[in-house]
Amino acid sequence: MFSHVKELQYNAKPERPDPVYAKKLQEILGGQYGEMTVMMQYLFQGWNCKAEGKYKDMILDIGTEEIAHVEMIATMIAQLLDGAPAHDQEQGAKDPAVEAVLGGMNPQHVIVNGLGAQPNDASGYPWNARYTIASGNLLADFRANLNAESQGRLQVVRLYEMTTDPGVRDMLSFLIARDKMHQNQWMAAIEELVKSQGAVVPSTFNPEFEKQEVAYSFMNFSEGEESSTGRWVNGKALDGVGTFNYVQNPGAGQVPFLKVPPNYTHGTPPTNGVNPMQ
Amino acid sequence: MFSHVKELQYNAKPERPDPVYAKKLQEILGGQYGEMTVMMQYLFQGWNCKAEGKYKDMILDIGTEEIAHVEMIATMIAQLLDGAPAHDQEQGAKDPAVEAVLGGMNPQHVIVNGLGAQPNDASGYPWNARYTIASGNLLADFRANLNAESQGRLQVVRLYEMTTDPGVRDMLSFLIARDKMHQNQWMAAIEELVKSQGAVVPSTFNPEFEKQEVAYSFMNFSEGEESSTGRWVNGKALDGVGTFNYVQNPGAGQVPFLKVPPNYTHGTPPTNGVNPMQ
Amino acid sequence: MFSHVKELQYNAKPERPDPVYAKKLQEILGGQYGEMTVMMQYLFQGWNCKAEGKYKDMILDIGTEEIAHVEMIATMIAQLLDGAPAHDQEQGAKDPAVEAVLGGMNPQHVIVNGLGAQPNDASGYPWNARYTIASGNLLADFRANLNAESQGRLQVVRLYEMTTDPGVRDMLSFLIARDKMHQNQWMAAIEELVKSQGAVVPSTFNPEFEKQEVAYSFMNFSEGEESSTGRWVNGKALDGVGTFNYVQNPGAGQVPFLKVPPNYTHGTPPTNGVNPMQ
Amino acid sequence: MFSHVKELQYNAKPERPDPVYAKKLQEILGGQYGEMTVMMQYLFQGWNCKAEGKYKDMILDIGTEEIAHVEMIATMIAQLLDGAPAHDQEQGAKDPAVEAVLGGMNPQHVIVNGLGAQPNDASGYPWNARYTIASGNLLADFRANLNAESQGRLQVVRLYEMTTDPGVRDMLSFLIARDKMHQNQWMAAIEELVKSQGAVVPSTFNPEFEKQEVAYSFMNFSEGEESSTGRWVNGKALDGVGTFNYVQNPGAGQVPFLKVPPNYTHGTPPTNGVNPMQ
Amino acid sequence: MFSHVKELQYNAKPERPDPVYAKKLQEILGGQYGEMTVMMQYLFQGWNCKAEGKYKDMILDIGTEEIAHVEMIATMIAQLLDGAPAHDQEQGAKDPAVEAVLGGMNPQHVIVNGLGAQPNDASGYPWNARYTIASGNLLADFRANLNAESQGRLQVVRLYEMTTDPGVRDMLSFLIARDKMHQNQWMAAIEELVKSQGAVVPSTFNPEFEKQEVAYSFMNFSEGEESSTGRWVNGKALDGVGTFNYVQNPGAGQVPFLKVPPNYTHGTPPTNGVNPMQ
Amino acid sequence: MFSHVKELQYNAKPERPDPVYAKKLQEILGGQYGEMTVMMQYLFQGWNCKAEGKYKDMILDIGTEEIAHVEMIATMIAQLLDGAPAHDQEQGAKDPAVEAVLGGMNPQHVIVNGLGAQPNDASGYPWNARYTIASGNLLADFRANLNAESQGRLQVVRLYEMTTDPGVRDMLSFLIARDKMHQNQWMAAIEELVKSQGAVVPSTFNPEFEKQEVAYSFMNFSEGEESSTGRWVNGKALDGVGTFNYVQNPGAGQVPFLKVPPNYTHGTPPTNGVNPMQ
Fold first, then answer.
1. Minimum-distance CB partner of A155 among F48, F104, F111
2. How much is the CA Rg of chain A, to the nearest whole Å?
3. Which of the other chains make 3 or more beta carbon contacts under 8 angstroms with chain A?
4. Last residue in a domain, options B197, B230, B260
5. What is the extent of the structural domain holding E216?
6. Of B74, C192, D158, E199, which has the fewest CB atoms closer than 10 Å, so is most exposed?
7. Residue A3: in which H helix or E strand, if any?
8. Contact D184 C153 (CB under 8 A)
9. What global pTM score does this model have?
10. Among B197, B226, B248, which residue terminates a domain?
């Protein structure tokens, strides 16, 4: 169960409106790696969590924080849209500066949302739940979370570079710091799980049943062997068990063979020159 | 540029058809973390790669391998669908076993694909490109890749448990081994990048411009403090720079305030009892 | 800003697992009119709200409650999935009852979510943000909300009929009551707004600029005139301004005419018998 | 069965081309609340209608009219795109006015559609069927319809403000009037149904089986009680049965508890420090 | 402008309900190649048509017919859903036949649509506008139409094989005949256009500006040369201009080279061992 | 199984960056008829192919070539994005030319992809698998392929007109030639199949079971008879079997009748003035 207080988690007040930037800022609200993604991902991971209580509590703490991040960015966008030049100018007296703003805006911000934020990304594409994962395996999911916070912080940093508004930058500097913490947090939680379970997901599959011969081999599927010089082909594998090796010319398996399909599928008939029906 | 050989990378031949299992197997072909995802993700990361040559080559090696994994699973599905009971049975003589198969199949396998594989997941939902990321930052993307291989191997292992067919299990045991290698590979590549860049993405943002006060704080947004006992609140942060701390009652920022919208948006008018138009 | 307590808003405990029903219950979690829809719709309407404070507070109260409804249903689904028969049975010893369960389940509940809830509907289709609206006009949006609560309660009632599990029914009886309240709530809020603004959205458009001749006419576009006997063609219009009338044979406007497209679009060339290029 | 006449329902002829506006106008053609939505929603409601004949006839009358609205807007867009500046200008001689037009256009109007309309919204997002509902309960669906006409008219009015072209405004003034009629029409039909069925959807669920204690309570889930001053917490509920009350501190239900998942799901193993496999 | 008559174009009455088949039949209603696709595709092609009047008239004739096909199939599905076993059975007394039906049904047919048709495919995936094309080039579009009618008839034929209900088969036999006519119709229209324009789309591009060296070459990108024996590598090309040839080892072009990205993108920094920020 | 060489299939090097054009070029990379579509469509058709070996080999040859086309366009886009003006300019000193570029760019090219290509179309809409078909019937699928190459070449030609950059035009002239070859190729393969199977898909359905009366009739569903003058209503049908005829006033079938739905669906109750519950 949740409750709401009227204060934002931090400040979200631009110095001046900027409807073109509002369109861009949508990316970290409703985009693939925006705050809606981490909010819903963490909440579902928390609600589905079957592991120790400290994990469930931790995941729901951060999930609850992310709702507040969505709130801050939505609030910021609504203010950036203030005074958007939505009216048409007279033919022959068009101001290129105004036209450029109109060209760079998302017209749905006016038509659909009346100068409010929308749960979409910077292309106007709606947020969808396939951006999230709750797999029931925390090590797998914490890697998803570390990735989401890494992509997310990268995008916030890029958006920081794209504005000079002190109010916007103030809010972004807060999000950039929180995303650093959240990267550290998931790295810490991963470290803890790897210690007890090992580094490969899932740790519980019996290795006898996997094809051991190819479990530590880097396979070269291209001309040139630059790929043979990295850590991923030299030394002990990161799971602490196997040793990397490099396969220059990987072998092959079966040649596939598919049966002729049954008549009721009306697939391509044998092409022996006889028209089957006429 | 690419070329094709007729052999599969490994074997893909079931002992007997199983159209219900064919539906399930679609998840690792066209699902969120199926082989199409890693194939397209790695290819785009490789084509966009602006870093050292060994990374581009390595990424395209594995991307090229993943095309072969898609090929194997598609081939397997087409064979699992052989002899699917697509015909209706006479009313009054329905065989429950046949009906159960019909209920568990994806009817599109017959109607749309004529007993062939489709680029969809186990719910029939089509693969889409938002499953992938190529951000231009390799550390961020390698975390995406490690996550994809972790979720992917977890799903393959679950599918292994859901069949007893030796041919299917043989192919899956190959994929399970490759996914272990690929987890190890991305862990190794991450280790290499973290050594030179540090652990936080992006490493190039000037920390003076981020809100340092909250950059290492775990914030408790719920009743109960189980979340205070993990590695993520104790000791040095994983980036080797800051130190974790726990904030029991996180502070708050501004109360948001939005201006009345301009007339041309026709938003809610002031509700002072006067009907504005009539 | 939000905070979380560990108690659910109400009970969510089934008497026994039922993985087939878990699939169905997804509809009111992640479907078009599920709890995620009202949760996100109300939160965005609240965050974007530029009207009087009591509206913003009211909308965020109910938006915050809806997060708790998502939590309850997710929790219920995770329990309904307990003990799902995911293992394959031996060929020749298949139990029809087990097979029927397998056929009726969503296989992603095992493969993707490890027996947890997913943010999707009963077909496995992911929730997306186009299910929601925050238009900046509260009367319009409250009608969206009343519709959502009406469709939502209808679906919950149908799901109530589809189970006999006392624990599931207990939770649903709570949601059914809340959805009744929420329908009443939006009707009350609509009544209040209609009193001050009038019943037509938006109320602020100058009626002189609309085509008055057709503003109260029901137009008959079909054979048969059963449609002439309803309230919608008899008496005063519901906005209290015009009077309904019935148009048996609606008139028509222009015949459309489109110019030949410019060459650079390479549309269909004039078909005068001359092959334009060869 | 349907038939077509060559006249549009009304005029659809702009005074001059305006490809930037053409992009915006797509919203009311193929957007969430565009004419395709009401067209398909009404047609499916009509085809599925199991109630009295006058409802089926009425719904199909308006559904048939909406096809003509789609036709008018598509025709308008095709004309607005005439003469779009699709050609590239020489480097160094770029005209800012032309560039602004190019920036504000949807490039797919040229590349994909050869200066024709597309069944998408103002962001280029394709129309999809989840925008519609046909629930089998007319009161629920008429509320969906009233919402659609309210959101739709709001969007048309905003688009009216965004152009000064007399031909475009002429067509929009027709649509604005029809949308007023359609709001009135659905309000009238709702009034009729509420009289016979009551105001809560569905009316046929036995109230004994719902949790009466919370069926008329407004629950306060936030700091501050501005929400206690509206019609929704004062007086008789709008269904004419209960009485509203305000709950300042809503109670809570169970603390959720989930079982450890079975081994075959390979979820997170107990974290007791023992690596389970190696 | 359109009008509606109450008769269907043909009969649509099943002998008995069959809710499992109703799910399958959705494919040709709201699927990729269902009737909604051809309906919307032809209507948009007709509305956008800038060619001779006979084409516009012909396209809108068939587009209008397709609305009637959607109507017939929707009506059929609503009847097939009659009496669907939606109620839960008592634990311990489950009838396998009923369970199989429940497993094979789309639960949304009850929960969302109250036993009515939905605008979705056989997987419950909603129809979307990207299934259609109106390119402004009739030869291109008529090929899209011929494909749609070919895929569509194939699916209807497969569905014919999947039922023995005489009423369903009667309706399908009508659709199968119409789809044959429509294939013939588009072939005839293509023949006409190819005569005047040539066979390659678009015919208006100056061949001097295309890379003539590769305009008639089949390129072998795989081991094995079975592909060298078809019509596509032997003789005159179908456009009547060039001559096919077979390239056993296709040459290659540039090796790609991408510049290091600018700092403001925060891409991967040079990996020279120096951590750039710390 | 596949392998990669470092050379592109042809050149892909622009003379200068043009981030606005990069957005447009996305259409033929990740759009409905972009190279990803033909790549995935041909690969799945090839993997599922159950016909003669020469078809499988031919389809996989061209599918493999298309991967190289995706690679070329992605590489081109990454270079067109070089030096994109992502930084904000100081208020009051905005350069209209820079603003126009910013307005015409896809902001995700910076924020999400760090100046790399994305698997989306010119509106930023992600590629999805419903753009492809592999039906199991080669004649149907080759028509899909001919359509895809026709739409694709049309789009490439339009993009050729929209740039003057010699490097971009060089690459496009290659693709335009290949798309001509591929149209010729599919026409040739279709000719071959039609010779053996006949022209109607599927050829294997017994014509006795289709409604012969309407199998060669063009039906006029609109005022005006311009549609009676084309090839499609005059002479022998293209399948060489029937003869076209024109039906001026097509007849009609049943009037649909739907039963009152069962109580458990809680649809609209009989509207006899009695409120059913209260």
1. F111
2. 26
3. B, C, D, E, F
4. B197
5. 210-269
6. C192
7. strand A2-4
8. no
9. 0.96
10. B197
